[in-house]
Design brief:
With about 550 residues, the chain is of the alpha/beta class. Helices cover about 30% and strands about 15% of the residues. The protein contains 18 helices and 21 strands. Strand 19 and strand 20 (about 515) form a beta hairpin.
Length: about 550
């Protein structure tokens, strides 16, 4: 299959006299930062791995992802893909299906058994990680590859954190999570389960650790004060979802009301449906536009028959029924009570009002700063206590798996620098390849590939995965929709349009496939104008 967009122009025929001294500007080949990679919280170089994938080099593409993120098969299922929101192609037709290609590559690696190697020899330094959620696992992976001895202690009976005990199976099959976790442990990472850490300094001292990465997440359910009759059945969403991993599923009854407007509320409602509830109703105090849950998750829940009661708060819970008050939004969008109440039948009430972090393991640790219930860290992810780093849900940031994985990586790189005495600030970012840097005339229309889904009947009666992956031809097509923003994809346009034949083709194995012969370039700028992807910049002549 050909790339759908590349066209090749004929090579210019004249080779005029040396003209360099006429120029006021000269063209320069550049590597700009594509918006997709810039938006990825795990810091993946999306443009680069899509380039490998569109050449059919799936292993190369997967290895490129693995430089930054050890869980592509998980990402391809649960990441909210901010990369696609930022993708330039969205301004042309539809964003590239980056997340679905990532899932294809992640699954391909699992089926082929691809493994990763260590990058450095043993450093003889010991790092303690507290928490085996995405942030802890990501830090462990990078630290182990950098040659450090890593021990993870987790309070739970199995690794994964909220990926295991929050995100339901119909979005993340456990076999995928376990396989990507095992690949990390295979790097020699020690995992101690059922081992809560109650005092971090003691644990550090006892194990003779040189540094610590804390990634304990946020597991304490927030409560709302709702007057309740003694026999009313009220549970936390996180506790309910957690109990799905036990042998006995929770008993919720025929009519289940879920209180909250985030993604956890949606997962709780969809799970209740699958457990046999005839009605699962989400009660939320604002409207759909102001709901924090992602729109696609709300859509999937509605398709499965979850009901929504917008602009409502729960005033009281009694056995079998709730008292609900109608709200209205004021001019600032804040919900205000109206005094109008109604009764809602409910066998159980599930509270999905967010989570706080349990920071008791940090009590008395000098230098730790806590603000709004989370731990303050610097840009190197270190807390105010030297040698103790933190990331994921327990630090101030968006609470997603991908952010947690990105924190784990950043912390690992700074812990490595700190242990070796050569910690440096993060590299400055490259200039962004915005949409206005592209010449989109050259890209053909190519609609996004739709991911197949489980049929609706089976969606509400089983915990089978809802969204399917792409097959190889679809994944290849999707990768080839990428416009390679800001990075040369060897289309030959510059070589073809230059009126003075000042573009020289180099060995494609080099870092650029082309270079300018400035003895002949007049600085007319046609190459930069006609480069589809913005990989040529005109710079002022300095002499
Ligand atoms: C229902 C639900 C659905 C979600 N869905 C998505 C989604 O689809 N996509 C997405 O990107 N994000 C989603 N999230 C958010 C995401 O799961 C979290 O942001 C992410 O897991 C945070 O990672 P973490 O490593 O910081 O913490 P966690 O995943 O919470 O892991 C922390 C680990 O630390 C352990 N621990 C805690 N205290 C101690 C201690 N004292 N000693 C030892 N171990 C300890 C815990 O047992 C746990 O294993 C969801 C969250 C929930 C609740
Ligand atoms: S991890 Fe998420 S944001 Fe990053 S490339 Fe993958 S889908 Fe996009
Ligand atoms: S078109 Fe490709 S390189 Fe450009 S933003 Fe989208 S995925 Fe990234
Ligand atoms: S620099 Fe631009 S125009 Fe030249 S070959 Fe690369 S992508 Fe094509």
């Amino acid at each position: 299959m050909e790339k759908p967009f590349a066209i090749t122009l004929d090579v210019g025929s004249s080779r005029a006299n040396k003209t360099g001294s006429w120029r006021t500007e000269r063209p320069v080949y550049v590597h700009r930062m594509a918006p997709c990679g810039h938006a990825c919280p795990a810091g993946e170089d999306v443009q680069a791995w899509l380039y490998n994938a569109e050449e059919g080099d799936y292993e190369g593409a997967w290895r490129k992802i693995m430089e930054e993120n050890p869980m592509p098969a998980v990402m391809g299922r649960v990441c909210y893909h901010p990369c696609e929101t930022a993708c330039n192609r969205a301004q042309l037709d539809e964003a590239v299906g980056i997340n679905s290609v990532e899932r294809f590559l992640g699954d391909e690696a699992l089926s082929k058994g691809w493994q990763v190697d260590k990058l450095k020899p043993p450093s003889h330094k010991r790092v303690l990680i507290v928490g085996a959620g995405p942030s802890g696992l990501s830090a462990a992976y990078h630290l182990a590859r950098l040659g450090h001895h890593v021990t993870i202690k987790d309070a739970g009976p199995i690794a994964g954190g909220m990926m295991r005990f929050g995100i339901p199976k119909y979005r993340l099959p456990r076999g995928v999570l376990e396989a990507e976790t095992q690949r990390i442990l295979d790097l020699g990472v020690e995992l101690e389960l059922n081992t809560p850490v109650s005092n971090v300094l003691e644990a550090k001292q006892e194990g003779h650790f040189d540094a610590v990465f804390l990634a304990v997440g946020a597991h304490l359910a927030k409560r709302a004060y709702i007057p309740a009759g003694s026999a009313s059945h009220i549970v936390d969403a996180v506790a309910m979802l957690r109990s799905m991993e036990h042998e006995e599923p929770p008993l919720l009854g025929r009519r289940v009301v879920i209180y909250g407007g985030g993604n956890t509320a949606i997962d709780a409602a969809r799970t209740a449906k699958r457990l046999g509830a005839e009605e699962a109703i989400i009660v939320y105090r604002r409207n759909r536009e102001r709901m924090p849950a992602h729109d696609f998750e709300v859509e999937e829940a509605l398709e499965e028959g979850v009901l929504m009661k917008w602009l409502s708060t729960i005033k009281r819970a009694d056995p079998g029924k709730l008292v609900v008050e109608k709200m209205e939004l004021d001019e600032t969008g804040w919900p205000q009570p109206t005094g109008e109440v109604e009764e809602l039948e409910a066998d159980s009430l599930v509270l999905a009002l967010g989570q706080d972090t349990d920071l008791s393991l940090l009590e008395g640790v000098e230098g730790i700063e806590v603000s709004d219930g989370v731990v303050t860290v610097g840009s190197n992810m270190m807390t105010g206590h030297p040698g103790i780093f933190a990331g994921g849900d327990m630090v101030p940031a968006e609470r997603t798996v991908t952010v947690a994985i990105g924190h784990g990586k950043r912390a690992a790189r700074h812990i490595d620098g700190w242990l070796r005495g050569n910690d440096r600030p993060d590299e400055p970012e490259r200039e962004l390849a915005d949409f206005d840097k592209l010449n989109v005339w050259y890209y053909a229309d190519a609609p996004k590939t739709i991911r197949p889904r489980l049929d609706e009947v089976r969606r509400t009666s089983t915990f089978d995965e809802v969204v399917f992956g792409l097959d190889e031809s679809n994944a290849l097509f999707e990768a080839r929709r990428c416009m390679s923003c800001g990075n040369c994809f060897a289309c030959d346009n510059c070589y073809g349009v230059c009126p003075d034949n000042a573009v020289i083709k180099l060995d494609p194995a080099g870092s650029y496939s082309y270079e300018f012969d400035y003895d002949y370039c007049k600085g007319c700028g046609m190459c930069a104008e006609e480069c589809p992807c913005g990989a040529i910049q005109m710079e002022p002549e300095t002499i």
